[in-house]
Amino acid sequence: MDTSRWYARPCTTNPYRSSNTSFATTAPIAKYLNADYTFLNKPLADYYGIKADVKSTGAVGKINGANAFGRGGALRLGTVLTTTSAPLRTSPVKRGDWILRRILNTPMPPPPADAGSIPAGDKNFGGLSLHDKLEAHKRNATCANCHARIDPLGFPLENYDSTGRWRAQYADGKEIYNSGTTIDHADIHGTTGLLKYRDDRNEMFRKTLTTKLLGYALGRTALPSDLALMEQMVGEGPDDPFSKLAIDVVSSRQFRNHPAMRLPRQIL
Ligand code: HEC
Hints:
- This protein has 14 helices and six strands.
- The protein is mainly α.
- It has three domains: 4-73, no CATH class; 84-199, no CATH class; 212-261, no CATH class.
- The strands form three sheets. It has a two-stranded antiparallel sheet. Strands 3-4 form a two-stranded antiparallel sheet. Strands 5-6 form a two-stranded antiparallel sheet.
- The chain is globular, with a radius of gyration of 20 Å.
- Bound molecules: heme C.
């Protein structure tokens, strides 16, 4: 079993540092998805095969110029790529589902109970590729209803293996299948194509972000009475900083009048 990833534990602090940097600095909202920096220590850089000048063996530090080695932004974080994989193989379905849900604000309903499954590791595919295995989705209209939306967004990330390491080919030497055609007829090739597709839909990401931020700040799901505030937040541009969204929230009527925000009587 490959245990090297256990030594790279800071991969769990890496997303916190990335998010904090987005939230606490003047970095534009769009940078959350497409930053040119990431956070690494030496074990993590070695694990991912990243040839950057990283010295710390403890705390992760900010490394600029991350795009040059295929990193930067939330989607190319090892944690995201790992949690959207099966234990012993990638899952373009889980990755595509994650993008629809967490970035494009268009979540898919859960799969029907009789949808079946595919083996947990790609060694058990009987010589078929992961793409061949999932092709059945296209032939069955019931499956295609959802999977024509999901799968094309996951395949472009196939160059990242199930723990987020870059790979030029599959373990059996076959060429990586890293393309997809979306239901809005966009042909996406590889990670660069996916980043472009996503950047062109930044407003959808701002909708997801707005819903999450508001839910977190108010401790409840958004209600129809929040629509005006949400529109205001989504209206902040991709080049505006996160702090603008935070100001929208804390200066809102719903935040200032939220019962949990009122101070206990004795300290008033
Ligand atoms: C209502 C939408 C929907 C429909 C219809 C649907 N699926 Fe899915 N399917 C999903 C979602 C969402 C997931 C991801 C669930 C998860 O996170 O594991 C999924 C996951 C899967 C997986 C697991 C993929 C993996 O990497 O482990 C398989 C296999 C699958 N579906 C096959 C099918 C087949 C075959 C059909 C048609 C009989 C079908 N699905 C119909 C939404 C759907």
